[in-house]
């Protein structure tokens, strides 16, 4: 992949690349977005199928080159070290989430949080619990699925607007989506940029924490006079919560991600055995497919295959001059590292708006963002954070995104529509605004690179 990248850069210095090299990307967007509009369902066209067709189109391009050279470019890119490490982490993250789910960790964590929160801060509490669970679990959709029923119950018993309650859940879910060590977006962002998970986490958290604080204050003010006590079973077992705490603390302390995920999986299995949530004969099956048969390692198959297919497409797009065209188009408008960061933010935003999948968007934008950051001396940890942040910004407010659709489906008893949630999705919007302020006013010496570093494309 490094060889192909060098060849692409040399070609890019001599020419502005070829727009036709981006045809496979256009084919994917046409199939994915076009199919969604035509069928009125943005998930009717499986992303993996659309990417496979795009890869075939990439192979059919540029008939002047022998097929063997195209295959070499595609497979070299697919077998890149970062791509393979990313896939391995996806597998380990799946094993942990499957084991933790089967052990009852999600239920215990949610019940524990609700048991210790005063009723006056119930809505803000949903946001806080969502932040914790999404950071520990690494899945925004999983967090929304776990907390939305509680948000619905809170609304029905207190009269607090359902959109506010469910909006608090979505905001909390998006907090951990771009911070968790086992989130597929974080894994994709760090691996495509070649930076350490701990460095990206520390860079990421110092950028977004003001947005989280302001969001918390807004929910406290808006629901200040609510009186609510959760009815029903709130039993929890701290043993089942421990694996999430270990993964969270391990991620924050900078331990190796493989060690953290492995330890979290072992502790989850042990917790399941101790609490008899997992039978000894099911130890391996819950890692493979979770408690309900649809999670675990199997739940990571799609994104793993997509990552490999996208890497192959990127290799061919580079070979056909598509990357050089993008770099030239963005680069001629970039004059400084600050401009490079804005370009990366714009690129990741457009990718997520187009695909409605922040992990796929990062995998697609990552190689281009890496080239831009290297040209202008932007640290890899900053680039990874920008990719993760701005795809999460849009993923948290897109009416056709999985997160909003899952939230509305879970709150069907309230009859909510995606557009009713938008006014209460404070965190994604604030995260984007704070990140832009950070780019404009926090890009100096504290960022580790000079303002006038780099050169034009």
Structure summarized in a few sentences:
It is built from 22 helices and no strands.
Overview features:
mainly alpha; 22 helices; 0% strand; 72% helix; disordered N terminus; single chain; 457 residues
Describe this structure as you would to a colleague.
This protein has helices at 2-14, 23-39, 47-60, 67-78, 81-102, 105-116, 122-137, 140-158, 162-177, 184-193, 197-222, 238-253, 257-274, 283-289, 301-319, 322-331, 337-355, 358-376, 380-395, 402-410, 418-421, 426-441. It has a domain at 84-298. With 457 residues, it is mainly α. Mean pLDDT is 80; it is low at 1-14 and 444-457. The protein is built from 22 helices and no strands.
Q: Report the mean per-residue pLDDT as an integer.
A: 80
* Record field, number of beta strands: 0
H/E order of the elements? HHHHHHHHHHHHHHHHHHHHHH
What best-fitting shape do the alpha-carbon axes yield?
globular
Helix content: over 70%
Q: Give the N-terminus to C-terminus distance in angstroms.
A: 20 Å
Radius of gyration: 22 Å
**Derived structural class:** mainly alpha
**Helix segment tally:** 22
Strand content: under 5%
Task: Catalogue the unreliable spans.
Answer: 1-14, 444-457
Largest sheet: none
């Amino acid at each position: 992949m490094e060889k192909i990248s060098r060849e692409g850069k040399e070609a890019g210095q001599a020419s502005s690349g070829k727009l036709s090299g981006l045809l496979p990307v256009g084919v994917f967007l046409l199939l994915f977005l076009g199919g969604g509009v035509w069928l009125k369902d943005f998930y009717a066209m499986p992303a993996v199928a659309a990417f496979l067709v795009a890869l075939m189109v990439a192979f059919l391009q540029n008939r002047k080159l022998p097929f063997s050279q195209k295959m070499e470019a595609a497979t070299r890119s697919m077998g890149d070290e970062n791509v393979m490490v990313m896939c391995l982490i996806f597998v380990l993250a799946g094993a942990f989430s499957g084991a933790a789910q089967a052990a009852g960790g999600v239920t215990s964590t949610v019940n524990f949080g609700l048991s210790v929160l005063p009723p006056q801060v119930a809505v803000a509490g949903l946001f806080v619990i969502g932040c914790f669970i999404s950071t520990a679990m690494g899945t925004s959709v999983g967090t929304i699925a776990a907390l939305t029923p509680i948000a619905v119950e809170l609304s029905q018993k207190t009269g607090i607007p359902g959109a506010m309650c469910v909006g608090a859940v979505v905001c909390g879910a998006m907090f951990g989506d771009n911070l968790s060590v086992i989130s597929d977006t974080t894994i994709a962002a760090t691996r495509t940029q070649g930076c350490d998970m701990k460095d990206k986490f520390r860079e990421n958290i110092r950028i977004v924490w003001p947005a989280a604080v302001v969001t918390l204050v807004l929910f406290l003010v808006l629901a200040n006079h609510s009186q609510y006590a959760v009815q029903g079973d709130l039993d929890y077992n701290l043993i089942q919560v421990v694996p999430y705490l270990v993964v969270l603390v391990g991620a924050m302390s900078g331990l190796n991600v493989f060690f953290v995920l492995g330890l979290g999986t072992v502790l989850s299995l042990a917790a399941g055995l101790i609490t008899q949530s997992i039978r000894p004969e099911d130890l391996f099956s819950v890692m493979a497919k979770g408690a309900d048969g649809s999670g675990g390692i199997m739940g990571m198959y799609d994104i793993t295959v997509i990552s490999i297919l996208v890497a192959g497409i990127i290799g061919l797009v580079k070979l056909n001059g598509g990357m050089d065209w993008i770099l030239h188009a963005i680069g001629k408008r970039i004059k400084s590292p600050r401009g490079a960061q804005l370009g990366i933010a714009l690129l990741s935003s457009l990718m997520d708006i187009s695909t409605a999948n922040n992990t796929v968007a990062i995998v697609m934008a990552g190689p281009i963002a890496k080239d831009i950051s290297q040209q202008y001396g932007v640290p890899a940890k900053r680039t990874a954070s920008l990719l993760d942040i701005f795809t999460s910004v849009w993923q948290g407010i897109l009416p056709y995104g999985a997160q909003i659709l899952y939230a509305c489906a879970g709150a069907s008893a309230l009859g909510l529509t995606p557009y009713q949630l938008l006014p209460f999705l404070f965190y994604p919007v604030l995260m984007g605004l704070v990140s832009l302020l950070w780019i404009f006013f926090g890009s100096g010496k504290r960022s580790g690179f000079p303002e006038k570093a780099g050169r034009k494309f």
